[in-house]
Amino acid sequence: MKKFPGDRVNNPTSNEQQRLAALKALQVLDTPSEQAFDDLTALAAHWLSTPIALISLVDGHRQWFKSRVGLDVTETPREMAFCAHAINQAALMEVPDARQDPRFANNPLVTGFPEIRFYAGMPIASPDGQLIGTLCVIDRQPRTLSDKERDTLQRLARLAEFQLQLRLNILQSNAKTRELEHQQALNQRLLDSLKAGVVACSDDGTLTLFNTTAQHWHGADVLTLPPADWAHYYDLYAADGCTPLARDDIPLVSAWQGKPVENVEICIAAAGQPLRYVLCSGGQLYPERDGPGAAIVVMHDISEIRRASNMKSHFLATVSHELRTPLTALSGAVGLLGSGKTDPRSAAGERLLDIARENSQRLNELVNDLLDMEKLEAGKVELQLEPLALRAQVIQAMESNHPYADRFQVHWRIADNLPDLNVIADQRRLQQVLANYLSNAAKFSHPGDPVQIAWQQQGDSATVRVVDQGIGIELEQQPQLFNKFTQLDNSNKRQRGGTGLGLAICKELVELMNGQVGVESETDKGSCFWFTLPLAVPENQPTQGSVPPP
Question: Which reaction(s) does its UniProt entry say it catalyses (predicted)?
């Protein structure tokens, strides 16, 4: 049961540790003087007509005076303290003549300064009932208190207890405030660390929360704006990225108005950032109330999901087109040959057979790309790494891809004065990477242009470059080139075909062979696609081995 000022424990000396803990909890020892306590000792000295009045607190080894009248010292040893005896009882302790009391007759405070003769001390209890000190009066003459004086001393002691209770309340309130501030700081750090945007408003629509992610997405912190203006600050659009959102359609406004906000997709346009698609969910914090009220909305960035979905749809459309075109040509050629109207041995028949072969090859390449990407994503590609002569591998790739050069009217060229380097790679996969680089260069070159292949040693790696003088690639599109299902949007480039998987497969394969890929390009001036591979160890230390799937 909670203790109140004036309550005392039944056996005040039963647990000294509890008493000392109660005194420590008040944080009052060795604190500066306070007017409230000084007023009590002044009143006690005045009303009881004594030269000395003290508020004394007894710890484990001393008595310390929180307030004093008529005495200069601030503390005395506990073994000399009259108050140390007074706290052993719950009632007023009165000593008419200390010289006649065997407990105090030889006390230095009696035989010497301040020559105590009379002492009266009323124990002071802590808020939980522990006796921690006294309000006492001292005289240098023997005397006794009247009943009225005893009542006065007891009442003043209770006032001291109320002051201690007030002090403890303030301490506890401050501690709770600090704890709340600490928790709020932790909550804010947690909110700011979230990858989701979190916004909230109060009952009157004032923004109260706009975490760091939300600020970044919107390009600013709008908490400083007045309630009437904050909704108009947003540059928000519907999910189509084109239609501006009306004020009432903004998710937080809808939630504030009590409307359901569940997986609402909107688009945020912030200065210097691409359109960001976010999925919003939230509602009122107190939905049981009628009308507008405090609300919160959580936003998740689904831009990458939208991009991947768009890319997948685009990829499926591309694959459908890429499949349909050779299948149509193949079906037509086979149909004409099968009808018997065209002799396979005639010039027309030979042309139809060429068409069938070319489109069968295109279908085979498409299927192989799809299978390779599936294996790469599943981690099922095994490499046989071994030392390979780079020049020989490049020449082999040029010869194998000669039909591409003929088809797009370009010619391969190896740069002059190149060193002979050996690299560690899987031969079949290296040929696949080179073939992709060469075919891309041929596709996007102008007729008659050369495509140059060069390499050089850089540290413990070899860098291979395939350079064309073709149409080039816009700077903002270059980071996407090695992503899956990526094809450039330019219609002149799209018409050259491809699944958008080739460069993504090259990136995966080169990285499996401990290399890197990249591109340097300028519109209308050509492109340089490069990749690196680790150099082989010296000739007398050949290295080869199997690399299992990661």
Answer: ATP + protein L-histidine = ADP + protein N-phospho-L-histidine
Q: Residue 237, SS3?
A: strand
User: Residue 388 has what pLDDT?
Assistant: 96
For residues 282 and 294, is the Cβ–Cβ distance under 8 A? no
What are the DSSP calls for 62-92, one per residue?
Answer: EEEEEEEES---SEEEGGG-SHHHHTTSSS-
Which of 59-63, 127-131, 137-141, 264-268 is predicted with the least confidence, judged by mean pLDDT?
264-268
Going by C-beta distance under 8 Å and a sequence separation of 6 or more, which residues neighbour residue 96?
Answer: 118, 142, 143, 144
CATH number for domain 197-301, candidates 3.30.450.20, 1.10.238.10, 3.30.70.270, 3.40.30.10: 3.30.450.20
Strand 62-69 with 75-77, pairing: antiparallel
Domain boundaries, the chain: 16-172, 197-301, 307-375, 383-547
Q: What is the pLDDT of residues 421-440, one digit of tens each?
A: 999 999 999 998 999 999 88
Q: Which CATH fold would you assign to the domain 16-172?
A: Beta-Lactamase (3.30.450)
CATH code at 307-375: 1.10.287.130
134 contacts 87 by C-beta, under 8 angstroms = yes
